[in-house]
Amino acid sequence: MVQAPEKDGTTLNKFEKFKAEKDGLAIKDELDHFAQIGWEAMDKTDLEHRLKWVGVFYRPVTPGKFMMRLRIPNGILSSEQMRVLGEIVQRYGDDGNADITTRQNLQLRGIRIEDIPDIFQRLKSVGMTSVQSGMDNVRNITGSPMAGLDADELIDTRELVQKVQDMITNYGQGNYQFTNLPRKFNIAIEGGRDNSVHAEINDIAFVPAYKEGELGFNVVVGGFFSAKRCEAAIPMNVWVRPNQEVVDLCRGILEVYRDNGLRANRQKSRLMWLIDEWGIEEFRTRVANHLGYPLATAAEKDAIDWEKRDHLGVFPQKQEGLSYIGLCIPVGRLFADDMFDLARIAEVYGSGELRLTVEQNVIIPNIAAENMATLLTEPLLAKFTPNPTPLQRALVSCTGAQFCNFALIETKNKAVDLIRQLDAELNIPQGVRMHWTGCPNSCGQPQVADIGLMGTKARKDGKTVEGVDLYMGGKVGKDAHLGSCVQKGIPCEDLKSLLTSILIEQFGATPKG
Ligand code: SRM
Ligand code: SF4
Predict the structure, then answer these.
(1) Which residue's alpha carbon is at the smallest distance from atom 2 of ligand 2?
(2) Phi-psi region at 276: left, alpha or beta (left = phi > 0; alpha = psi -120 to 50)
(3) How high is the ipTM of this complex?
(4) Which EC number(s) does the record attach to this protein (predicted)?
(5) Which mutation among 274, 443, 445 tests ligand 1's pocket best, with the greatest number of atoms within 8 A of CB?
(6) Going from the N-terminus, what domains does the chain have, and what CATH number goes with each?
(7) Which tens digit of pLDDT belongs to each residue from 174-222?
(8) Does residue 69 carry a catalytic annotation?
């Protein structure tokens, strides 16, 4: 069959073809029908791709048991919402669970297609949506997990994040204006001084900056990871006020990217490739022309001057007499009972609010001083401790082979097992940020870690075995920069001895007596 030529003379890739045939979002009106006919009878493209426009992911590893990716703006949800999510996964027994993601978000597992209409009703009843959370859409928008709580905060990001999400999704109804981007798109809004959102790895990030004494944001663009290329975001030389200007700039950039982004080769479709083609000056000019007004030039320097905090433990809030507690959720994995317990604890001791972090952990804010001692005796804190070991506290892992068909290795269980063994044998004087990712797509962000492990196939004794490529030197917080691959093809079974040496030689660890 002859493919339709693209405007640059090349042919459309298969994703562009099926998007042109039917917008992915159109699937939202067919969910009752799918529930009736069952997944086996669905059109293959609807099943494997278009469902992702409403956040429903067919999992070839577990056919018939779908994953649902939500949107949780700024990572903030209520106990009521958490309870509804817990009820959704509870009905799937051992197949049901939820993962906190590296974008301050939740993914539910075990979902059956026949339940989707009912699940969508339940989400709607508590003001949640999963719309446009996968494929060529804007992902969950991240913001400072301490927004509104932190005495040293510069800008409260909560309302801004919500407004940007509402613009992109038409208040969660779905918005055809932004459902056919050339590729996925990440937006982050930082309001603190420690770059809690990893600004550098987003397609657009807003970073607090004072311009002539006025507080606003400098804007960086084009950061991304992919199997072929990883780039930190670069300055766009734009400064915006922390109001509608943020929303308008996001809209302008998205429209320019939508209308001009490269669509022939999916490996070269992220925003940075367009910036490469035009140059950053031209990109800035085109966005300003599109918006129809001049953009203010960037402030000389941004206001990120702190090391990144992990928020685990108990800390005072800016509100007199209130504190928050950060709980370590090993590799972000939650089961229904955990979700009910977290919801209950947030209600009994706090204000019913829960927050998620990009390190896949949970924060419960607004706890009165007199309630903290009792909270600390809650049995759940034995599983989700506020005082983890230096290796536990900074462990992040992507989904891996248990559910993800791209994975070259299993990740989450390996990650937890390995640090348990290392903790048993070593005294480690400082936090060591270890990130696991199951394949070069880098969802687990090994490039931001002290020690990053990327799944691969390795050779050992003439056999192909599960292995990792080792990344080191990722720096987060102020002066963030990406780490790089320092060793390739390490068999997983050799990892413990290698990491023991690295922890002793480079992180001051000492063997336990
Ligand atoms: Fe990711 C694709 C999981 C954050 C880069 N990612 C996938 C898919 C959807 C592949 C698939 O269909 O199986 C994975 C779903 C597996 C599953 O069943 O859970 C998946 N990505 C994840 C999550 C759940 C990892 C985690 O355990 O936390 C994260 C969900 C975030 C969210 O709530 O939306 C997740 N993915 C990321 C990040 C990190 C980030 O955003 O900070 C990245 C690198 C940053 C970036 O995108 O620039 C990332 N994911 C990718 C890529 C490579 C993108 C590219 O331009 O090539 C893919 C593959 C693709 O899009 O073709 C991918
Ligand atoms: Fe799947 Fe690879 Fe992303 Fe891990 S990094 S979730 S294995 S696509």
Answers:
(1) 439
(2) alpha
(3) 0.99
(4) 1.7.7.1
(5) 443
(6) 15-124+311-386 (3.90.480.20), 393-511 (3.30.413.10)
(7) 999 999 999 999 999 999 999 999 999 999 999 999 999 999 999 999 9
(8) yes
